[in-house]
Amino acid sequence: ARTGKNLWHFQTGSAVYAGAITYMVDGRQYVLLPSGTTLTAYALPAGSN
Question: Staple 21 to which of 6, 26, 32, 42, CB 3.0 to 4.6 Å?
Answer without folding.
Answer: 32
